[in-house]
Structures are given as structure tokens and as C-alpha cells.
Design brief:
Blueprint lengths: L1 E2 L1 E3 L2 E3 L4 E5 L6 E6 L3 H20 L2 H17 L1 H12 L3 H22 L6 E2 L10 E9 L2 E5 L7 H13 L2 E5 L5 H13 L7 E3 L4 H10 L3 E7 L2 H10 L4 E5 L5 E4 L7 H13 L11 E5 L3 H13 L19 H16 L3 E4 L3 E2 L2 E2 L2 E4 L6 H4 L6 E7 L2 H9 L3 E2 L1 E5 L3 H10 L4 E4 L15 E2 L2 E2 L4 H7 L1 E9 L3
Parallel strand pairs: 1-5, 8-9, 8-11, 9-10, 11-12, 13-14, 13-21, 14-19, 18-19, 21-22
Antiparallel strand pairs: 2-3, 4-5, 6-7, 7-25, 12-24, 15-18, 16-17, 20-23
Helix pairs in contact: 1-7, 2-4, 2-5, 2-6, 3-4, 3-6, 4-5, 5-15, 9-10
The structure holds nicotinamide-adenine-dinucleotide.
The site of nicotinamide-adenine-dinucleotide has 29 residues, from helix 7 and helix 8.
Length: about 475
């Protein structure tokens, strides 16, 4: 099967294709039409021309399109989950979860489309400002460039498209090379729901080539990027006056305090889910767990037991939780980092080996803070559990990272938890939850190398609109 680009409301095929393989079974899924520079330019030109039509729509019309898209996706939820599962090697139940969240993200976007509220400004508070009424409105920016990663190909794309449409923008998507089908599926559904042709395009292909065209084109008013810090920094360095939002990686940490002695089994269960969800390829995957000395041995045992029971397998099987990584290169990188840590004294409690194109759920302990497996983003099913003397040491280690996305802490000591929450260098702190948690309407983004700007539907809309002030002089 040859799958085309999505341009001007329909598929467009050319002679340039690349084969897309299932990361686990290695079967060919499709030949994907590879966008050339000219295709990206055409998509931007169309999106620019369609912008005035989008801007002229009422917020109710935009909300109706998004609500209808949510309903259509609900009808096709199994088809969408199968697409995600195949192209990303995502265990089918996790893929179904992603589709459910996407439906919710579309509905949040529809609701927010109707809440683009401005404010009244008392200009008479300034010397000479009397006799005027003033208010603000939020205007859409124009063409939004969305560059997306492979790990949540449907919901993370929707986190850019939903707010863009809600605000009255048009959008051109450059999906990850491995996962273009989910984005195309979303664009088809939105077009069937009444989004004008030209308001959305999907151009799969080479990141540096197509990203450069987006970045250079002045008609693109904002780039919303989710992916690795290296690419994010490159984009921002070249973006000039374009708006940029960057949602980047992390090596998320959590702390288990001594006040949680009677909850260890429950916390270990939640932490195992957070560490191994989608093969550990989640930007806020639980990677580093620090446990109070007094609970360390019991927690370690409880956690290792849970990890041993996690099933590795084909992503199409209902019972599979961990499957192959996105490619062999990732597998080799993760196994190399585990071997290095082991050689330097880390204890492997379970896993540590490759299987198919993936890595078995791996739990390490006694890992030095300078090991790659600790200070880099693993993006694989690997977690480390280390002992700390107290909450201060936990805080120091949690903050000892180039990243700062989510942090989790389990504590029944309210004062300690709130103090830590204030001192953690991250965008979001989850008290009595693992860091692997995101609700689609909450503000979400990182500090340090984890990002720049915020998503979460309402917050993404703020970054996709321009504030305009209008004043009326009714006296002079
Ligand atoms: P990646 O950075 O390799 O690729 C992301 C996208 O950027 C792809 O579409 C790719 O083609 C494109 N790209 C590559 N080079 C480019 C360039 N020079 N200019 C423009 N675009 C370019 O990331 P990935 O491997 O697909 O995803 C994994 C990363 O994404 C991890 O670091 C993960 O933590 C991060 N991520 C972050 C969040 C978040 O919300 N913070 C969510 C999901 C994933």
C-alpha cells in the first residue's frame, strides 16, 4: 500500500516513497510518500491562503468541527488504535488509551474555542486616559507548524492541532518518520468534520529538510515542537521572530518518604506502571526512584516483583505491556548504557537483556548519579532505585538533572511535601502520584532542557494567539 501526503483535503502520492516497517514484527506496513521541500512549501501556501477563512469562522463553528471530529474518532477508535499499535509498536491497550485521550483532547479544544475571553481595561487609571473604554481580544496567529515525535503520534499531534483550530489558525504537520499514519488519520477525520481544505496538511519526511523549510518561511508564525532537546534547541536558534513552543525530554524522578511505610505495595505498582508504560518511551517516564533508607529494601523487593511479572511481547497481544523499541539503534543504546552501569557497580534486580527489538523490563539499583542511565533520558524500559537518607538528599538528587519536566513525590508529611514541591526544578509536581502523569487540560511543559512554553489545551491556545487591545474614546 502506498500512503500519500495529506494536502488540500486529500491524499497526494508522488514517486518518492520510503518503506515503513513494524518495529516489532519487521513486516512492511506501507510505502509512505516522502514530502519534498516543494510539498512543504505548497502546504504552507495553502494554509496561509486558508487562514482568512478560518479566522472568519465563529468560535461556535470551530467548536462544532472539533466536537464532530471527537465523535467520528470515537466511532473509529479501534481502527485508530490499530494504526498506532502497528507503526509505533505500542501495546494495543496503551494504544487504545491514547485514542481515548485524543477524543478528550479534541473535546477540551472544542470547549476552549468558546472561551477565548479578553478583559476590560480601565484606561482612566493612567494620567490623561479618561473617557475611554478598552478591552482585549485574542487573535489567531496564522499558520502553525507542528513537528511531532513518534511516541504519542495521535494525541500529541492533537495537542497542537486542537488548540490551533480552536483559536482559528491553520496548521501544517511534520510527523515523525516512523509514525505518519496516525497524523494522516487525524487530518482525514478533521476534514470530514468540516475543517476547510488547506487548513490542515500532513507532510511526512526528513526532519532536518522539512523542518528547515518551515523555519525559514515567514508565513509560518509559530512552530510547536515536541521531540528531543537537541532538535528543539536547533529549531529555536533558527526561528527568528517566530513563536516557538518546545516540549522536550526528561529523566523524571520520584521520592518515597518514610511516612509511606504502609503504602509500599501500592506505590510500587504505580511506579512500575510509570516506568514501563509504552516500553519506557514516554517523555515523563519514571526513570529515577529515590527511597528513604528505612523503606528501601522492602520497596526494592516489591518493585522488582512487579517488574518481573510485566509481559514482554507482540504489541497486538492484549496481555503485552512492554514490546520492541522504536528501532534497533534505540535497543543497542539502552543495552549499552545498562552494561556500562553494571560494569561500574550497579546491581541488576531484573531484566538487563534484549529481546526481539526491545529490552526486557529492567530494574537497577546502586547506580551512580553520573551514569548515562541516570543523567540522560533512557527512553526505554529501565528504572533505577537508589537509597537516600532523607527528603533533603532526595531533593538534591532529583534536581541534579539537565531536565525538569514532571516530578513525583509520595509523602504523608504535608509540610515536607509542599516544601519539596516549591524547591523541585520542574514544570509539574505530582504529590502522591508518580511523575508519569498528565491530564490533557492541565498546563504542561518543562524547565531547563525539558522545554520552553506550555501546552495543555487552554495554555497552548494562549501561545497560539496574539493579544490585541482596542480602545474607544467616547468623550473626545
Ligand atoms: P526527535 O527530536 O528525533 O524527532 C521529533 C521530530 O523532529 C520528528 O518529526 C523529526 O523528524 C523532527 N526533526 C528531526 N530533526 C529535525 C530538524 N533538524 N528540524 C526540524 N525537525 C526535525 O524525537 P523523537 O525521537 O521522535 O521523540 C522522542 C523525544 O521526544 C524524547 O526526547 C521525548 O522525551 C520527547 N517527547 C517530549 C514530550 C513532551 O511533551 N515534553 C512528549 C513526547 C516526546
Amino acid at each position: 500500500m502506498v500512503k500519500g501526503l495529506f494536502l488540500n483535503g486529500e491524499e497526494k502520492t508522488t514517486n518518492h516513497t520510503y518503506p515503513l516497517y513494524h518495529p516489532h514484527t519487521e513486516e512492511k506496513i506501507a510505502d509512505i510518500t516522502e514530502g519534498a521541500k516543494e510539498d512543504m512549501e505548497e502546504a504552507i501556501a495553502l494554509a496561509d491562503r486558508t487562514f482568512l477563512e478560518m479566522k472568519a469562522m465563529t468560535s461556535k463553528e470551530r467548536a462544532d468541527i472539533l466536537f464532530e471530529a471527537a465523535d467520528r474518532l470515537l466511532e473509529k477508535q479501534e481502527e485508530a488504535a490499530q494504526i498506532i499499535s502497528k507503526e509505533a509498536s505500542k501495546p494495543i491497550n496503551a494504544a487504545r488509551g491514547e485514542v481515548n485521550r485524543t477524543i478528550q483532547t479534541l473535546r477540551f479544544s472544542a470547549e476552549e474555542a468558546k472561551r477565548l475571553n479578553g478583559e476590560y481595561l480601565p484606561l482612566d487609571a493612567a494620567e490623561g486616559g479618561g473617557g475611554r473604554d478598552a478591552f482585549t481580544i485574542h487573535e489567531p496567529l496564522g499558520v502553525i507548524g507542528a513537528i511531532t515525535p513518534f511516541n504519542f503520534p495521535l494525541n500529541l499531534t492533537t495537542h497542537k492541532v486542537g488548540p490551533a483550530v480552536a483559536a482559528g489558525n491553520t496548521v501544517v504537520i511534520k510527523p515523525a518518520e516512523q509514525t505518519p499514519l496516525s497524523s494522516i488519520f487525524l487530518a482525514e477525520i478533521l476534514t470530514q468534520s468540516g475543517l476547510p481544505k488547506g487548513a490542515i496538511a500532513v507532510i511526512p519526511g526528513d526532519g532536518p529538510t522539512l523542518g528547515e523549510v518551515m523555519n525559514q518561511d515567514e508565513r509560518v508564525k509559530k512552530i510547536s515542537f515536541t521531540g528531543s532537546p537537541e532538535v528543539g534547541k536547533l529549531i529555536k536558534s533558527k526561528a527568528g521572530l517566530k513563536r516557538v513552543t518546545l516540549e522536550l525530554g526528561s529523566n523524571s524522578a520520584m521520592y518515597v518518604d518514610e511516612s509511606c511505610a504502609d503504602q509500599l505495595d501500592e506505590i510500587a505498582g504505580k511506579a512500575a506502571a510509570g516506568a514501563f508504560a509504552y516500553n519506557g518511551q514516554v517523555c515523563l517516564s519514571t526513570q529515577r526512584i529515590y527511597v528513604h533508607d528505612s523503606l528501601f529494601e522492602s520497596f526494592k523487593q516489591a518493585f522488582a516483583e512487579k517488574a518481573k511479572n510485566i509481559k514482554f511481547g507482540d504489541p497486538s497481544e492484549e496481555s503485552t505491556v512492554v514490546s520492541s523499541l522504536i528501532n534497533k539503534k534505540s535497543q543497542q543504546r539502552v543495552l549499552g548504557w545498562i552494561a556500562e552501569a553494571k560494569a561500574n557497580g550497579a546491581e541488576v534486580l531484573t531484566g538487563g537483556e534484549g529481546k526481539a527489538n526491545g529490552v526486557l523490563p529492567t530494574v537497577l539499583s546502586n547506580v551512580d548519579r553520573n551514569e548515562k542511565i541516570s543523567c540522560n533520558e533512557v527512553f526505554g524500559p529501565v528504572v533505577l532505585i537508589n537509597k537516600v537518607a532523607n527528603a533533603s538528599e532526595a531533593l538534591e538528587l532529583m534536581n541534579d538533572s539537565r531536565y525538569g519536566l514532571n516530578a513525583g513525590l509520595f509523602s504523608n508529611n504535608l509540610r515536607q511535601a509542599i516544601n519539596m514541591a516549591h524547591d523541585l526544578e520542574v514544570g509539574q509536581v505530582l504529590i502522591n502520584d508518580v511523575p508519569t502523569l498528565r491530564f490533557d487540560h492541565m498546563p504542561y511543559g518543562g524547565v531547563k532542557d525539558s522545554g520552553y512554553g506550555r501546552e495543555g489545551v487552554k495554555y497552548a491556545i494562549e501561545e497560539m494567539t496574539e493579544l490585541k487591545m482596542i480602545s474607544i474614546n467616547y468623550k473626545g
